[in-house]
Design brief:
The complex is a heterodimer of chains A (320) and B (345). With 320 residues, chain A is α/β, with parallel strands linked by helices. Chain A is 51% helix and 16% strand. In chain A, strands 1, 2, 3, 4, 5, 6, 7 and 8 form an eight-stranded mixed beta sheet that branches. In chain A, helix 4 crosses helix 13 and helix 8 packs parallel to helix 9. In chain A, 51% of the residues are buried. In chain B, strands 3, 4, 5, 6, 7, 8, 9 and 10 form an eight-stranded mixed beta sheet that branches. Chain B is 37% helix and 14% strand. Chain B has 345 residues and is an alpha/beta fold. The chains are: A alpha/beta (320), B alpha/beta (345). At the A-B interface, helix 5, helix 7, helix 8, helix 9 and helix 10 of A face helix 5, helix 6, helix 7, helix 8 and strand 9 of B.
């Protein structure tokens, strides 16, 4: 069963009719209604394309959080062979909000790390909805240090509403853990490529997304705070989330323009969840292209290029 | 506002030859005791008696740290309002107001001078400027400070006071987390000491970047230090927070800061550390061990006295303090009924 977002209602109705027609065609004279089906299919496709060509930042937020949107595990499944996750920060515990390990990407050994949101109630709880505690970030540091030592490039799959806000997380140094993870990204002598596949939420995202190349899916969002959070602080009304989403410039298209990300990965019409295989193909190609560009660089050159890239962010924006 | 407060009072004020702050008496947010402002000023904005640490402006802080004069470092200009941001007010207007109010271009000042005889680069984040929030200007200031320390081969001391990221600059504010970290890494590689003084408050994206990457972390008594805002945590877990949660002393107990130091002993502590790390010979008597009220007198005519609001509403009153982190309760925004359950378990 496909889940429709509220703004997709017109498409949902067309596709529901289409389903009925198809069911009807299966039991009766298929030829007689095949024209109707084709006509309706075209209409539904057109409606969907129209909607997705003009998504507002808030609609993109909903698409980025779509329950059927592919998550970390789907990417690992689609792009990485021999994936071997490792566990634990060797200090306190294992945090499954962040999954990290090693595998082969298009034949080459790589490190893969990212937030997993989970796809049903059980897995969502297990992965804490992709909101990591300090252990998660400390595991990330550990994984990245191993990758660096063995010369394996790092692919970071970023998808989190943010770091987990809880007493235990604060007690164990959430702030320090995030800061150290960001620092670990910058210390890598191997290339790292981050892909924001859904939500890039604040410090919880930057801890993994401080990368040589940062890619974003076409309808992903990346922001300093969730639209709801911004609305409740700036307007003291979480209901103004739509305004906040627009004002904060959180879409891939805005961030490319601002020079914060390096490239956008196209999604199928109707969003990543409508054609997971196509998204894997497009993401794989974009990651491979980025890694190929960085492959000739020495460890020092990789570090210097990454540092310079981040220092340059914002400097070219027009002075008022 | 009326004619008397707008016109008459300022005129009466100018009759006196020196500036007189509106509030001659400062109320201790802790005990409620009223203290004469001069006594507080002379005591480095610590209430005598209760030892409550009021916030300190950047200029006063610089004066309190250096042995004598110091050279203020010019900071690079940054793009103004790149997002053309507007909430209840236009961001450009907020900036104008804060510039007029504080006399600062943005939230961070940087200076170089001697601290206990050691040439030191000092940066101070001033909470009075939009809650000390971290935007492009503040980020660039911290990068400049670290680069200055690197170029001049001095230790770097950073006084942090910030609610977190400046939301009006969106993602560009988030980018200051890796940007400042880049600059700090160079100091680390050059083996130059980086000492962070965490003052009230140090939260959000600021805590999750340069504030927690010091070689040494010193916190002022009672300072709130943490990543997620207290309100966000309470909404997420639906429990009251423990006594003293996210205070300096709590962070020391949990191993996140090295020491909690009374402001009147701070200079002495810094001098000791800086001289040890730079292998300078021991001093006969530590020059900063007594309160440095003297150096503050140079300050007359500078920024107006910052009168403190009580600590508890101050944290909520500005951007970012509660905003950072996931910035939202999952139960609220995601229609995931299980989220609260996870939080408890």
């Amino acid at each position: 069963m496909r889940t429709y977002l509220d703004f997709e209602k017109p498409v949902a109705e067309l596709e529901a009719k289409l389903e009925e027609l198809r069911a009807l065609g299966a039991e009766r004279d298929a030829v007689a209604i095949s024209d109707d089906i084709a006509r309706l299919e075209a209409k539904a496709a057109e409606a969907l394309a129209g909607l997705y060509a003009t998504l507002t930042p808030w609609q993109k937020t909903l698409v980025a959080r779509h329950p059927q949107r592919p998550h970390f595990s789907d990417y690992v499944h689609g792009l990485v062979e021999e994936f071997t996750p490792i566990a634990g920060d060797r200090k306190f515990g294992e945090d499954e909000a962040i999954v990290g390990g090693f595998g082969r990407f298009r034949g080459e050994p790589v490190c893969v790390i990212g937030q997993e949101k989970g796809s049903d109630t059980r897995s969502r709880i297990r992965h804490n909805f992709g909101m990591a505690r300090p252990e998660g970030y400390r595991k990330a540091v550990r994984v990245m240090e191993l990758a660096d030592r063995f010369g394996l490039p790092v692919i970071a799959i970023v998808d989190t509403a943010g770091a987990y806000p809880g007493i235990d997380a604060e007690e164990r140094g959430q702030a320090e853990a995030i800061a150290r993870s960001t620092e670990a990204c910058l210390a890598l002598g191997v290339a790292n490529v981050a892909v924001v596949i859904g939500e890039g939420g604040s410090g919880g995202a930057i801890a993994l997304a401080t990368a040589s190349r940062v890619l974003m899916l076409e309808h992903a969002i990346y922001s300093v705070i969730s639209p709801e959070g911004a609305a409740s602080i700036l307007w003291r009304d979480a209901g103004r989330a739509q305004d906040a989403a627009t004002a904060m410039k959180i879409t891939a298209q805005d961030l490319l323009r601002l020079g914060v990300i390096d490239a956008i990965v196209r999604e199928p019409v109707g969003g990543a969840h409508r054609d997971v295989a196509a998204v894997m193909e497009a993401t794989g190609n974009a990651v491979a292209a980025a890694l190929a560009e960085l492959a000739p660089l020495s460890p020092d050159a990789v570090r210097a290029a990454r540092a310079d890239k981040f220092l340059a962010i914002g400097r070219k924006l027009k002075l008022a | 506002m009326n004619w008397i407060s707008d016109v008459v009072r300022p005129r009466i004020k100018t009759l006196f030859k020196r500036e007189t702050p509106d509030n001659l008496w400062i109320k201790c947010p802790d005990t409620g005791q009223m203290v004469f402002h001069k006594d507080v000023e002379a005591n480095l904005w610590v209430i005598p008696g209760s030892n409550y640490h009021l916030r300190m402006g950047a200029r006063e802080r610089l004066a309190s740290v250096f042995d004598g004069g110091y050279e203020e470092i010019a900071l690079p200009e940054v793009a103004t309002d790149p997002l053309k941001f507007r909430d209840e007010k236009r961001y450009v207007d907020r900036l104008k107001e804060n510039r007029a109010k504080t006399g600062m271009a943005d939230a961070v000042r940087v200076a170089v001078g001697a601290v206990g005889g050691i040439d030191t680069t000092v940066a101070v984040q001033d909470f009075a400027f939009m809650g000390g929030s971290l935007g492009m200007a503040a980020g660039e200031a911290i990068v400049t400070a670290a680069e200055t320390a690197y170029a001049r081969r001095t230790p770097f001391v950073l006084f942090v006071a910030s609610g977190g990221a400046r939301m009006q600059e969106g993602i560009l504010s988030l980018m200051q987390m890796p940007r400042t970290t880049v600059a700090l890494r160079r100091l680390k590689e050059a083996r130059l000491p980086y000492v962070v003084v965490l003052t009230h408050p140090t939260t959000g994206g600021v805590s999750a970047s340069y504030a927690m990457l010091g070689d040494i972390h010193i916190a002022e008594p009672g300072a709130v230090i943490g990543f997620a805002g207290a309100r966000v945590i309470e909404q997420t877990i639906r429990e009251k927070l423990p006594e003293g949660f996210q205070r300096a002393e709590y962070l020391k107990e949990h191993g996140m800061v090295d020491m909690v130091v009374d402001r009147r002993e701070l200079k002495g502590t810094l001098v000791t550390l800086l001289r040890l790390f730079t292998k300078a010979p021991a001093l006969e008597a530590a020059p900063g061990s007594a309160p440095r009220a003297v150096s503050l007198e140079k300050r007359a005519g500078d920024a107006p006295l910052a009168i403190e609001r009580p600590r508890d509403d101050a944290g909520e009153a500005h951007e970012a303090a509660d905003a950072e982190g996931s910035g939202e309760s999952p139960a609220e925004s995601r229609a995931e009924p299980a989220a609260t359950e996870t939080a408890r378990g």
